[in-house]
Amino acid sequence: MTGFETLATPQPTQNPDKVEVIEFFWYGCPHCYDFEPILASWVKKLPANVDFIRQPAAFSDLWAKHAKAFYVAQALGVLDKVHADFFDALQNKHQKLENEEQLGAFFTAHGVKEADFHEAYNSFLVDTKVRQAAVTPARYGVTGVPVLIVNGKYKVDGKSAGSHEKMIEVTNQLIKRESTAKK
């Protein structure tokens, strides 16, 4: 089988009973934006034995600010509601969403109470997750996005697979391989 790389050092998964798929992405990445509708459709059809995890990468200060928006949305329970809109705001509307004030306006426009936003934005939990987003990609050998990591063992990206659609095909094959190995 081709279209992926095997990680030199396999990484532990959160739940050993499931096949874990991690997507590394950045909201400012046009490739991630193009991949998102394909990925979102695929995620809806994943088998019950697959855990899908979105993982923002924070390769720079700007990426970290967008990762913070992701974790604020996650903490507030509105990630499903704002994820696609955040991509759209950056990619199509070219909005500046880089500081507490700008992000606050985005979140309140999506029905989040201003006080709730600021509490999450300034929380220890969100801050900790943003710091982790800066170091986690290196554990998987991730240097660009979008990337899918299957079960802490395999890295699938556009370069190895050839296209976004092929990334999904290769990932499906790896999920089948790992599901069989777990039985």
Radius of gyration, taken over Cα atoms and rounded to an integer in Å: 17 Å
Assign an overall shape. Answer: globular
Strand content bin: 5-15%
Would you tell me the structural class of the helices and strands? alpha+beta
What is the average of the pLDDT values?
A: 96
Question: Main beta sheet: strand number and arrangement?
Answer: 5 strands, mixed
Distance between the termini: 21 Å
Helix content: 40-55%
The tally of beta strands, per DSSP, is: 5
| Low-pLDDT runs | none
Order of helices and strands: EEHEHHHHHEEHH
How large is the count of helical segments?
Answer: 8
Trace the largest sheet across and list its strands.
1-5-4-2-3
Describe this entry's structure for a reader.
By secondary structure, the protein is of the alpha+beta class. 55% of the residues lie in helices and 13% in strands. It contains eight helices and five strands, in the order E-E-H-E-H-H-H-H-H-E-E-H-H. It has helices at residues 30-43, 61-76, 79-91, 100-109, 114-121, 124-139, 158-161, 164-182; strands at residues 5-6, 19-25, 50-56, 147-150, 154-157. The protein has a five-stranded mixed sheet. Helix 1 (30-43) links the parallel strand 2 and strand 3 (50-56). The chain is globular and about 50 Å long.
